[in-house]
Design brief:
441 residues, alpha/beta, Urease, subunit C, domain 1, TIM Barrel, eight-stranded mixed sheet, eight-stranded parallel sheet, 18 strands, 35% helix, binds zinc ion
Length: 441
């Protein structure tokens, strides 16, 4: 076997592979490579630079990309007739697979009735008093056996994949007891083994105050610190630890305590901040050196500037204000001007249920005024950075994982333009075709 030594520009990892690819995608009208020299998130005007190859081609061997270039270069380099799987992407857009870096997919119990209540003007507190809201999800998730949580999660992951997501971060946080938080994280571990998608697990025991700790939130924080984190770290069930820092939920002081303990146990910090009110969460995120933060609808300028300086990634979740029928969205344009790295995620949870990163890209354009190119950057290379996987995924480069999407549209501007439908024609994960929506052949 002939060996080819390929060095990815920034992973510096040598990939040993035979010369002959087993899958190629060619004739791509637009091949969006997102080629990024330094493995860092794209900032400012670089968010619009997609490194597009027209009439592009990708060659894949096993789970890796072994060639990127034009179709002519592909044909001159390889024996085209010998390649077993060839995808003709004439008049199609090809991009890296989406990375959804902030979700809550492990739960039981749906809350579809709450939309009518919201439309009737019922408040969050009214819904909670009527037995709904997050505590309903907690109640149902605690009761659900592990197998049920795995089954529910699988259904969501299958649909995410249909819409082009190839890597997803997901959190616990609907158990709120040591046992049921661990049950959620075990469900994630099982799914990560069984499902084609790669799943990154996050412990979110500090999601809300459980009913039995009402008015005793410090006691609950003590349980998280002294029992949950040590057990979860010992069983190696989570890579990240997240906290919902918000007025009436967890204070800045409690958030710091939880995250400092998590860091000591080897978990990496994330925070939900400034969703409903400004608790100076952005400043806290940069003090604690969080890898990524979610929401940031109300963050103040001082905090945002601190985030830009420390490089904390702002993961924007426009599905949430959309479902809550709010007028306010995160100030994405201001963040880009300040030099904050921006990623996009679905925030899929029982109150904001979409598997579709295509939908999120559309919301980011229509409600946060991102350009189609910026939104695509935020959903690929920048969201790979939000889960620290930029050496492996997020762009199409030699040596990286072969995770890509073939869209039934001619260019990237179509993604938010033709909204509300699934434009993904084929999804390739780890070099294998996992979704084929092409009914024309
Ligand atoms: Zn969330």
């Amino acid at each position: 076997m002939i060996k080819l030594f390929v060095t990815s520009t920034y992973s510096k990892k040598e990939v040993f592979t035979s010369v002959d690819p087993d899958l190629v995608v060619y004739n791509c009208n637009e091949l969006v490579t997102m080629n990024s020299k330094y493995g860092a998130p794209r900032l400012y005007g670089d968010m619009s630079k997609l490194a597009i190859i027209n009439d592009g081609a990708v060659a894949i061997k096993d789970d890796r990309i072994i060639f990127i270039g034009t179709t002519d270069e592909l044909i001159s380099k390889f024996e085209f007739g010998k390649i077993s799987i060839k995808i003709d992407a004439t008049n199609k857009l090809v991009t890296p697979g989406f990375i959804d870096p902030h979700t809550h997919i492990i739960f039981d119990g749906t809350r579809e009735n709450e939309l009518s209540m919201k439309l009737e003007g019922k408040t969050y507190i009214d819904i909670l008093k009527a037995g709904g809201g997050i505590l309903k999800t907690v109640h149902k998730t605690r009761q659900a056996p592990l197998e049920k949580l795995v089954e529910n999660g699988k259904k969501i992951l299958d649909r995410m994949m249909l819409y082009g997501t190839t890597t997803v971060e997901t959190k616990s946080g609907y158990g709120l007891t040591t046992e049921s938080e661990i049950k959620q994280l075990r469900a994630i571990k099982i799914l990560n083994k069984q499902h084609p998608l790669d799943i990154i697990p996050t412990f979110l025991g500090a999601h809300t105050i459980p009913p039995e700790y009402k008015d005793k939130s410090d006691d609950y924080v003590r349980l998280i610190i002294s029992e949950m984190i040590p057990k979860i770290a010992k069983e190696n069930l989570a890579e990240y630890c997240d906290v919902f820092c918000e007025e009436g939920i967890f204070t800045r002081k409690q958030t710091k305590k939880v995250l400092k303990t998590a860091i000591r146990y080897g978990l990496k910090p994330q925070i939900h901040i400034d969703e409903i009110v400004d608790t100076n969460g952005a400043l806290l995120a940069s003090e604690i050196k969080a890898i990524q933060t979610g929401h940031l609808l109300k963050s103040n300028d001082e905090g945002l500037k601190a985030m830009a300086e420390t490089g904390v990634i702002a993961t924007l979740l426009p599905g949430t204000p959309f479902c809550l029928m709010l007028d306010d969205y995160a100030p994405a344009r201001k963040m880009i001007e300040l030099g904050i790295p921006i990623a996009l995620a679905t925030d899929l949870n029982p109150n904001c249920w979409t598997e579709s990163m295509q939908m999120i890209i559309a919301l980011a354009c229509y409600h946060m005024k991102l350009s189609p190119a910026e939104a695509l950057t935020a959903a690929t290379i920048n969201s790979a950075c939000a889960v620290q996987r930029q050496d492996e995924i997020g762009s199409l480069e030699i040596g990286k994982k072969a995770d890509l999407i073939v869209f039934d549209v001619p260019n990237h501007q179509f993604l938010p333009y033709h909204f509300g439908v699934n434009l993904a024609l084929k999804v390739i994960k780890n070099g294998k075709i996992v979704v084929d929506n092409d009914f024309s052949t």
